[in-house]
Amino acid sequence: MVRRRIVQALTALAYNLNLKGFIQGSIYQGPVKNACVPGLNCYSCPGALGSCPLGSLQSAFGAVASKVSLYVVGTLVFLGALLGRFICGWACPFGFIQELLHKIPSRKLRHKKAFGVLKYGKYAMLGVFVLLLPIVYAVQTGIATPAFCKYICPAGTLEAGVPLVALSPALQSSVGWLFSWKMLILGGVVAASVFVWRPFCRFLCPLGAIYGFFNRISVFGMRFEPAACTQCRACARACRADIDPSKTPNSAECVRCGDCVRACPNSALKFGAAQKIKPGRRGNVSPGRTALRRP
Amino acid sequence: MSRARRPLQAALLIGGAALIAAGILTGELPVLLRKAVFICLECIGIG
């Protein structure tokens, strides 16, 4: 857990090393800005050194000659096939912020039936706001409006909107209903994060939806050893994404946080090359057995 | 890991790398850079 926190913090810092931007109210304009970072990190954040893959994907619909950015799609495919949603769990600054908010003492909501429906929200966001609307705008006007960034993305509001508006009187004078709407969404996500673990990532994030498509086949994933499983369900109780890792260790909802790996008393779950579950081999270890415990 | 997945993983990794290379070779990076170096007013809720 501590190791993941350190990686998350270092990643957030690495994405946003243009620290003087937060003082000057400007953004980085250097030559590496066209490189996509793996996680959700607004390229208009004053600290951002690279581009958000989602923002780049939407903007490219009207900008590049082929209408679809091969570079951005290739980056998403390559990273997804290699890591899947490991990126969400370890290398996304906005996921990190939500996890910190979830540390605020309060009643935590888990295993709610509604979550089983809400998880499909991120696919709707991907289909409507990331793909459909920018393409419609591009066809109609020749300019692709990044609809998800414009109407939804709370990461952009927090990382870019709030600091830039706070530092620029010119932008302050331009604030209107759209900024108020986005602040409302940000406020909702911040408040929900206190009670629900990573609500934006689980229910709304289109980038998580894209990486989730690759979770079952990514090179890096979860390994489950049925022979070592005692069906004690410690992994399912530990999982804050409400997955049963002994049944779906590489679920599209899994962000590879590793809570289940630590919770398993028999090391039946490990990080490594993803694999299929081989049915019919469970329960070979009695619940009290300790021979397979990690040292 | 299931051996049946390895060809698919390899295909996706190679395909992804090929798309990245194709994007670079077709001159997408300067286009993306032009977008990225200006404040996106829409992204911050102004535009």
Structural write-up:
The complex is a heterodimer of chains A (295) and B (47). By secondary structure, chain A is mostly helical. Helices cover 51% and strands 3% of the residues of chain A. Chain A has a two-stranded antiparallel sheet with strand order 1-2. The interface between A and B is large, with 61 and 38 residues.
Shape of chain B: elongated
The percent range for helix content of chain A is: 40-55%
Q: Give a quick account of the main beta sheet of chain A: strands, pairing sense, barrel closure.
A: 2 strands, antiparallel
Number of E-type strands of chain B: 0
Give the largest interface pair and sizes: A-B, 61 and 38 residues
* Amino- and carboxy-terminal Cα gap of chain A: 18 Å
Count of runs of 4 or more consecutive helical residues of chain B? 2
Mean pLDDT of chain A: 88
Strand order of the largest sheet of chain A: 1-2
Based on helices, strands and strand pairing, what is the structural class of chain B? Answer: mainly alpha
Structural class of chain A: mainly alpha
- Count the DSSP helices of chain A: 16
Low-confidence stretches of chain B: none
Write the SSE topology:
The complex is a heterodimer of chains A (295) and B (47).
Chain A: H1 2-15, H2 20-24, H3 53-63, H4 70-83, H5 86-90, H6 93-102, H7 113-118, H8 121-141, H9 147-151, H10 154-167, H11 169-172, H12 177-195, H13 199-203, H14 206-213, E1 220-224, H15 234-238, H16 259-263, E2 269-273
Antiparallel strand pairs in A: 1-2
Chain B: H1 5-25, H2 28-36
